[in-house]
Structures are given as C-alpha cells and as structure tokens.
Write a structure and sequence with these properties.
alpha/beta; OB fold (Dihydrolipoamide Acetyltransferase, E2P); 15 strands; Ribonucleotide Reductase Protein R1, domain 1; 3 domains; 6-stranded mixed beta sheet
C-alpha cells in the first residue's frame, strides 16, 4: 500500500501527496460511497496502483481521522486562523464566535488574525480585548505588511485553515505565506459591503513543515443546521466555561439562574459583556429548536470515519 495525503478533490477525483513529495491522481473505491464515507482534503489514505494512466492510484483506505467538517469539507484540521478585517468589510463578531464554537467542538485550536489593521488602527485594541480572556492567540496584519514569520511558526507541523467572512484577506494571507500567487485575492462588493467569493474548492498547500487548507469564503453559518446542541454553546466561550463548575445548579444555563458563577464574572468584568450577549443569543436560538431535530441533523452529516487519530502532519 502507498501512503499519502489528499490535497484536493474535484468531481470524484483526488490528488494525493505521497511521502516522496510526488502528487498523483486517484479515484476512491466504490465501498466508500456505500458507507457514506467520502474522502476529504486532509485525509491520510492508503492507495494501490490502478493501472489507469489518468488515475494511477485507487484509494483503498482512509486512516483514522482527528475530525471531519462539512463546511469547509476537510479532515484532520488542527488549527483555524479566524480572519477578521477591521474595515471593508466590518467585523462580524457573531461569525467569529460561531467559528469558535465549531472549532472547540471538533478539537480544533482557534487563533484570531486581525487584518486590514491600517484601515482602522484605533479599533484594534478594543476588538482584541473581547478575546483576551479566551486564551486564543491573536495576530495583526495590515494590507502592506503580513506577519508571515509569526504565522508560519504556528503552522509548522500542523494542518491549518483560514476561515472567516469573504474579503477579510484569507487568500491574500495564504499567498503571502506561500510566497506565490496560488489563490485569487477577493474584492469587496460595494453594493453588499462584503467580499465576493473567490476560492472555489478546498485545497491543501505546503507551508514550511505544515499545510494550509485554503477554503471557500462565506458570510453566514447557522449552528442549528450543524446539529449543535444548546449545552455545547459554552465550549466556544472558554472564559465562561472555566467558571461554570462554580454555579449553584449543575445544569445552569448561565442566563437567569440564581448563584451563577458565569454571571458574577461578567458583572465584575464589563469587557466580557459583548461575548456574553452573543453566548445568550446563540444559546437561546438553539433552545428554540426541537432537541430531536438538532440531533437528527447531526446524524445526517457525513460521518467522521474511523476512531480519532493523534498523528501529526
């Protein structure tokens, strides 16, 4: 068997990075489709020679996964750089927090990259303050100067992805980190005030000793459609989760319950209010859904595959 890493998949065909550095086209066995298990970029696979000149390999086995996401469709993601522009487009903090929830649920480390800092430098300190208590690493980048060395240090040895609203600079950062124009940088729609979609498929690129997963931009993400349960919302708010054990009631929702340790912390630290208000928003939106519907939606998502992998890239 020939080991490899899936770099991208288009129209049922996949491109495999072999351990010797060669990239070869492959097709999966039909058994994966019958098992509702689709190969994904980021999958470690074992292949055999097919005898087909166009697709020399057949994907025989998908190795155990760390995780598997639907949006973006990628497996084994370890770190997510959540990109947030200070202007053009304006920050979408609801999207940032949603991405944080999804990352924590899927065992992905969130990192925040503030972009276009030269357009609104006075706003950076206040925005950063909202996330200081999370412990998530934060980086800043202007249009003229990208923190390539700092970000490369976070990428080495890992599979990472940039995620966030369109037009925030994900493709621009990818190009800067790779030292070449591999992705078309987006532009901002004057009518809508948000970025146009430029990246069309998921693809992995080698960056130092790690991999960057370039993904399509998006401007909306609904937690209920991903089957996230109300009680999981707190996972995206580690600054509140760490105090939850001090609440009077084990099933505390951290909204109106008496003797809530989370509410006490928020009262003592007003800078946590914006994040706390979004926590309440997401929790109540999910509680408005029928629990069985949320669980059913999660069951209908593509399965993550075999038991979790702890391999490093």
């Amino acid at each position: 068997m020939i080991p490899g890493l899936i770099l991208r998949g288009v129209g049922g065909a996949y491109w495999i990075h072999e351990t010797n550095g060669r990239v070869t086209a492959a097709k999966p066995r039909g058994i994966f489709r019958r098992r509702r298990l689709s190969p994904l970029p980021g999958d470690r696979v074992l292949c055999s020679e097919s005898g087909d000149d166009d697709f020399p390999y057949t994907i025989e086995e998908i190795k155990p996964r760390r995780n598997a996401l639907v949006r973006p469709p990628v497996a084994n993601l370890e770190r997510c750089f959540i990109t947030v522009a200070l202007a053009d487009p304006l920050p979408d903090f609801e999207l940032v927090d949603k991405l944080g929830i999804i990352c924590r649920i899927h065992n992905i480390e969130p990192l925040i990259v503030w972009t276009k800092t030269d357009l609104a430098p006075e706003a950076l300190a206040g925005h950063r303050a909202q996330y200081l208590a999370t412990g998530w690493p934060q980086f800043a980048a202007s249009l003229e100067e990208q923190p390539v060395s700092c970000l490369l240090a976070e990428i080495n040895g890992h599979l990472v992805s940039f995620a966030g609203a369109s037009g925030t600079g994900k493709s621009t950062l990818t190009n800067a980190l790779l030292g070449e124009e591999v992705m078309e940088a987006g532009e901002i729609s004057e009518k809508l005030g948000r970025g146009r979609h430029t990246t069309r498929h998921v693809e992995l690129f080698r960056a130092g000793e790690g991999w960057i997963c370039d993904t399509p931009g998006f401007s909306s993400l609904e937690l209920d459609q991903l089957g996230i349960l109300p009680e999981e919302t707190i996972l995206g708010y580690p600054e509140f989760e760490i105090h939850a054990s001090g609440c009077r009631f084990p099933g505390c929702r951290h909204i109106q319950e008496p003797d809530c340790a989370v509410r006490r912390v928020v009262c003592d630290h007003p800078e946590l209010n914006p994040r706390y208000e979004r926590y309440i928003l997401f929790r109540e939106l999910l509680e408005a859904q029928e629990p069985w519907q949320l669980r059913r939606r999660r069951e209908l998502l593509p399965p993550p595959g075999l038991p979790m992998s702890t391999d490093r890239f």
